[in-house]
Amino acid sequence: MYSIWAYLGSAMALVFGALALWRGGPAERSGAVVILTAWFITPFLQKNYDPTIWGVVVDVTAFVLMLGISIWSRRIWSLFATACSFAGVLAHIGAGLALNIGYNSYLTTLMILSGYGVAFSLVGAVIESEVYRRRAQAQASVS
């Protein structure tokens, strides 16, 4: 059952990332590259959905890069993507601290926040980019 949700999330990330690369500005394209790279590198670094040091390194790197994009761009979507990415980093830390409890909360947090949340933030990126683009066009036509 987990694989269905993982494949659906990957398809969503790919579609939304492609949309952000196509219709987004520099911040949206940078964010899409970071998110898609981290998204598709992670499965090669994991074994049986267990947290590995390389998965943590990828997620922490993606979080730091998204934080930089968020500070640089000052866009709402990037703040949401950064927060969801940070939730993924915290899930790795929590899984490392509670080894005997199991991975249900770890996988749920990664799937919902660090997975779907970050993927949906790319939709917000495209919408926000379109709003800024149309405002700039409207101001240019008034001037």
TrEMBL record:
<feature type="transmembrane region" description="Helical">
    <location>
        <begin position="105"/>
        <end position="127"/>
    </location>
</feature>
<protein>
    <submittedName>
        <fullName>Uncharacterized protein</fullName>
    </submittedName>
</protein>
<feature type="transmembrane region" description="Helical">
    <location>
        <begin position="6"/>
        <end position="22"/>
    </location>
</feature>
<feature type="transmembrane region" description="Helical">
    <location>
        <begin position="52"/>
        <end position="72"/>
    </location>
</feature>
<keyword id="KW-0472">Membrane</keyword>
<feature type="transmembrane region" description="Helical">
    <location>
        <begin position="79"/>
        <end position="99"/>
    </location>
</feature>
<keyword id="KW-1133">Transmembrane helix</keyword>
<keyword id="KW-0812">Transmembrane</keyword>
